[in-house]
Amino acid sequence: MYGFINTCLKSLVIEKYGEETWEKLRLQAGVQDSFLTFEVYKDEITMQLVDKACKILGIIGAAALDFFNIEISMEIVNQTEEEERTGKLLRGFDPVYPKSLWIDTKTFCNGLPFHMVFDKELRVKQAGVSIQKIVPGLQTMGICLDHYFSIVHPEVPFTISSIQKFINSQFVFQTRREMMPESWKQRPMLELRGQMIWMESLQCMLYLCSPLLRTLHELEERQMHIADIAPHDVTRDLILLNQQRLAEMELSNQLERKKEELRILSKHLEEEKKKTEALLYAMLPQHVANQLKEGKRVEAGEFKECTILFSDVVTFTNICAQCEPIQIVLMLNSMYLRFDRLTTVHDVYKVETIGDAYMVVGGVPVPVPTHAERVANFALGMIIAAKGVQNPVSGNPIQIRVGIHTGPVLAGVVGEKMPRYCLFGDTVNIASRMESHGVPSKIHLSSSAYQCLKYKNFEMSERGEIEVKGKGKMHTYFLIRNKTATENEIMGRPMKDLDSGRESVQSFQEGRAETTRSCHQSATQTQPEKDQTPAIAMKYIDGPVDAQNSLKRRNQAKIADLTGSYLVTI
C-alpha cells in the first residue's frame, strides 16, 4: 500500500491520542516512524499498525464515544445469538449452482491466466497460461509448488495446513531464482498476489492471483506485456494509472527545471540589461536615454546658464608625427580614463572627445547653481591628472591647455544612428576659443566664468585683454587654485591625516620647480594605482537658487567692479 495510508493513520493517532501513544503503537508494531506519501510499502506494515491500534486504542469504543457520546461494553457472541438479535443477514437468499460447469478447461486457463490449483501435498494440478509461460516448470503437472515459489506474506510455512489457517489473508508468492530458466536469472523475481480458496470436494486449493506490478518499467524488466494480464484484472489499470502519474510527475519536474532555467536566464538577462543601460547612460544623459528607449522624441532644451570646458594636448600634432598610432591611443586612453573619473567626482557631463580635445559641461542636462565651481574644480583636477600621463616622445608628463566659458546654450539629441547629445550656441565657440588661445598647463577663463567664480574661494589672476579670433578683444583670466579644497578632495581620493593632507593645489601649478625625469617615471608608475581607488564625489552646496538668479548676481558683480561697491540682494 502507499505510504499515504500509513501517514494518515499516524496523523489520526497523534491528533486524538498524542505522540506518546503513537510511539508506543509504532514500537509494538515494529515499523518506522515516517512514511513517504507516494512510496509503496508492504501490506503487512499497514496490517500490523491496524492490529496494534485496535488492541491499544479500542477503536470501536472510541468511535462510539466520539460520534455518539456513549460508552459501550463489548462481548463476543456466537452466530446463533447474532441471528436471534438481527435475523439472517442474507434474508433467505439461496444461491443456485449449475449441475455442471459450463466452461471448458482451455477457456478457464486463458480467462484466468494467473491461477494455480494444488493439492494437500502441494502438487500442482492446474495453472494459467501466463504463469506457465513465466515459470515453465509448471507445465509439468504433479511438481511441488514450493520448489518454484516461496511465501512472502504472510510469513508462514509453505504447508496446506498453514495456508488454511490464514486463508482469509492475501498471499504473496515469489518465484525462486534457482529454479528459473537461465534467461530469467538476471531479471527481478516475479511476485504474485491473490487469495486462497479451499475446494472441499476436490481436496485442493485454488490460488487466484495476479502479478504484483505497479509500473511499465517493472513490466519491461520481467519481459512481460500488458496482454499477459487478464483484461478484467485491475492490475492493468493500476499500471497504466501509475504510468500516467509518473508521466505527470516527470512533466512537473521538467516544468520545475524549465522554471529554474528561466529564472537563471532572467537573472543573466537582467545583468546584461544593466550592462547595456550603463553603456547607454555613458553615451547619453539618463533621462534622454530613457526617452529614446521608449521611442519618444527628445525635444531640444534651452539652458539659461551653464559652464563649458575644452581641453587639448599641447604639441599633439608633433607627438603624432613622431610616434606609432598605438602609442597615441594608449596615451589618450590613459589620460581620458583619469578625466572620466573626475567627471564622477564633480558630477559634470562629458559631451564628447575629438582626437585630443575633451569637452565637458556643468549645469547640463541637470541645471545646478554650482555649475561653474564644479567645472573649475574639474579643470584643476585635469591639470593634476595630466602630470601622471607620459609623453611617448620625450618621456616627460604631457601638458594640456584648458579653456572655460559660462553662458547660455541649446542642448538636444542629433541623429538616429549613434545619436549624440550636443550643445549649440555662441557659448560653445567662446569656450573653444578660450582653450585655443590658452597657455600650456594653465586654465584660461572668460570674463563671464571669472564673474561666476569671483566669490567662490578660488584664486585667479588677470591675463588682460587678448585678441580672440572671431571675437575681437576679450578680457580673460587664469584660474590658479581652490583656496579651501585639498588635492585629495579635488581628485576624489580618500582623505589623509590633517598633518599631511592639507597640501594646496597650488603646489601643482606654475612656479614650482620641475622634477627630474626619473621622478616623472615614478609618478607615472604609481598614479594608476591611485586612480584605481573608488572615486569619492566632492560635496557641493546646491541651494534653491536657480540659474537666472545666479546670472543676476553676476551682473551685480560687474556693476560693483565699475562703481567700487557691491550690492547684496536678499
From TrEMBL:
The principal location of this protein is: cytoplasm
Cited PROSITE patterns:
GUANYLATE_CYCLASE_1 (PS00452), GUANYLATE_CYCLASE_2 (PS50125)
EC number, UniProt record: 4.6.1.2
Keywords for the protein's UniProt record, in alphabetical order? cGMP biosynthesis, Coiled coil, Cytoplasm, GTP-binding, Lyase, Nucleotide-binding
Show the segment(s) annotated as Disordered. 494-534
Indicate whether GTP-binding appears among the record's keywords: yes
* A Pfam family of this chain: Guanylate_cyc
Identify the InterPro entries for this entry. A/G_cyclase (IPR001054), A/G_cyclase_CS (IPR018297), H-NOX_domain_sf (IPR038158), Heme_NO-bd (IPR011644), HNOB_dom_associated (IPR011645), HNOB_dom_associated_sf (IPR042463), NO_sig/Golgi_transp_ligand-bd (IPR024096), Nucleotide_cyclase (IPR029787)
Compartment(s) of residence: Cytoplasm
The answer on whether this UniProt entry bears the keyword Thylakoid reads no
Record's compositionally biased regions (Polar residues): 518-527
List the Gene Ontology MF annotations in alphabetical order.
Answer: GTP binding; guanylate cyclase activity
| Gene Ontology CC terms | cytoplasm
- Source superkingdom: Eukaryota
- Coiled-coil boundaries: 241-279
Question: Where does the Guanylate cyclase domain start and stop, copy by copy?
Answer: 307-435
| TM helices/strands, residue ranges | none
Family, according to the entry, reads as follows:
Belongs to the adenylyl cyclase class-4/guanylyl cyclase family.
Name of this chain's protein? guanylate cyclase
